[in-house]
Amino acid sequence: MQDIHNILKQYWGFQNFRPLQENIIQSVLNGNDTLALLPTGGGKSICFQVPALANDGICIVISPLIALMKDQVESLVNKGIKAVSITSNMQRREIDIALDNCVHGNIKFLYLSPERLETDIVKVRLLKMKINLIAIDEAHCISQWGYDFRPSYLKIENLRELLPNVPVLALTATATEDVIKDIQKKLRFKKELVFRKSYERKNLSYIVLNEEDKLARLVKIATNLKGSGIVYVRNRKKTHEVAGYLASNKIAADFYHAGLTPTMRDQKQSNWMQNKTRIIVCTNAFGMGIDKSDVDFVVHIDLPNTLEAYFQEAGRAGRNEQKAFSILLYNNNDKIELQRNVELSFPSIEEIKQTYQALANYYQLATGSGLGVTFNFDIAQFCDTYNLQAFTVFNCLKFIEREGYISTTEAIFQPSKIKFELNRDDLYKFQIASPTFDTFIKLLLRSYSALFDNFVKINEFDLAKKINSSRDETIKKINYLHQHKVLTYIPQNEAAQITFERERIDSKDIFISNENYKLLKQRALTRMEAVINYAESANQCRSRILLSYFGENNVDRCNQCDVCLEENKKTLHNDEFEKISTQIKELLAVHALSITNLVNALTEGNEDKRIRTIQWLIDNDQLKYNDETLLVLKA
To answer: Of the residues 91, 297, 474, 483, which has the fewest C-beta atoms closer than 10 A?
Structure first.
């Protein structure tokens, strides 16, 4: 076993671990099933990456987000660590090669989406691997008590039967007490073991502003707070509108959402990361896996659906431990809109069944067919075909997925990939026999490495430039080689996908548990009420409300949220009293002062608090007036 501190320094350049990281790593190395609760930016990935590198064998990492898997794999590879990911977007041949490399190669990390765990091709290969750890990211997704329950996560517990002696590390940034218990139960922990870092963020000031003209207030915020910022809005249209409004007020802002082309998303994100763009206006598609420490403020223009989501998004401010602000702009219309959205997110059971029927018709699936088949899915086209509302369809699909009939993937850009199927000798013979393709094949071999071993990402635009051709002509050349089995070509894919996890059945036979339906709706309403309570509370410390929601009840007032600041204006707290009284005694130790001059000479507290402190000191025989009606210390 390698020393974990040497690993940390070698690959990450850090001398020391952050709080709790070393405890979690040692727990895993001791073979314990472990649940790690670390807030956003708390360094969760190091908690499984370091122990996996310390031991022989491979670490299986399960994550619900393809984009996050992609980012983490690229980050590891850039550090010289061998890692691969397998998602439901990949073709069988591509999966086959990646799994073979995990069995026979020296791959250290295999990232899987939870849907992959039930496939025979994965289960058989897992048994052939030397697995040292199972890491489950976003572990709250396994709990129906959680805000982001994903049915596919329930399949993870089957790994415990398949790999009974491999320790499990579950990680999440947000979990209530019910979810914490449920995670350990669902993952069959041998014994309960939780490492929990306080969710308290002492450098982050939570502010709620009741505003009718939110855009005008946003301009004031962006003008007064000079640093980098994120503005979250509910939909794509608003990202354009708000960014445009900021730009019209000479504030460097841009918009971001999942509907942009991959190139545009990358460019916008890069500009913001490099501070070329000061403020990014986005939907919740932005932020996951973004590691920018110098975000000075996060503004929510719309009410978030849950406090869990709000806490994660707000927590992207101030990761450098410097003073930062999380600001929610709120008015009564927001409350009405949130209530409406929650209601709409629970379509009737009849609507759910009708959507399933439409889905089967859309793909022309006969009863009893479709098991394991994956289709690209364009929700706009689907809704147009059957005259349905997109929001209703989206929520119907979530219920159909929750009951295990289908699984869905996020719409995420998958670059084109190729792999040579001929060995080097046979490829050379092909080049001799097909001289028109010789130059192009040499270009592929020069431009990309490991083409004989793995599927490698390619860029058709780059290749076209190198041969002074068009992208379409370049794709024709690659397709020719694909058709003649020289190589396998997987074109880029940006579509969301739906996989039928069961044979297609008649819609009247679909079982949607009425009990589960009611329970999920009640939990959604409870979470909604928690958000509204947070926004409307005028007498509870914002930080205390958030921490209490996550089970931390014995915490002090933050003294920096809008509620605390308002309360501080009215109330003289002990720490303020001590500071003011100390300064009074220091001033009067030098010479006597009139009450007016003393109040003006003080720098602590406002005028009212200074006068109240002076009066208390007089009443308690610590100060007195001398013959000249000047204040002096009482001996």
So the answer is: 483
Q: CATH number for the 340-413+495-524 domain, one of 1.10.10.10, 2.120.10.30, 3.40.50.620, 3.90.1700.10?
A: 1.10.10.10
What are the φ and ψ backbone dihedral angles of 603, each rounded to 5 degrees? -115, -15
Beta bridge partners of 133: 59
CATH superfamily placement of domain 4-196: P-loop containing nucleotide triphosphate hydrolases (3.40.50.300)
For 64-93, write each residue's pLDDT tens digit: 777 778 888 988 999 999 999 987 667 788
- Tell if the pTM clears 0.85, that is, is over it: no
CB 353 within 8 A of CB 233: no
The CB density around residue 408, as the number of other CB atoms within 10 Å, is: 19
| Of 541, 577, 545, residue with least CA distance to 559 | 541
- Do you know the residue count of the chain? 635
Per residue in 382-402, pLDDT tens? 999 999 988 899 889 988 988
In CATH, the architecture of 204-330+537-555 is 3-Layer(aba) Sandwich (3.40)
Q: Give me the architecture of the 572-633 domain, per CATH.
A: Orthogonal Bundle (1.10)
Do residues 257 and 236 make contact, with C-beta atoms less than 8 angstroms apart? yes
CB of 35 closer than 8 Å to CB of 195: yes
Contact 114, 62 (CB under 8 A): yes
Cα–Cα distance list, 38 to 80, 102, 553 (Å): 26, 29, 17
Distance CA 91, CA 94 (A): 5
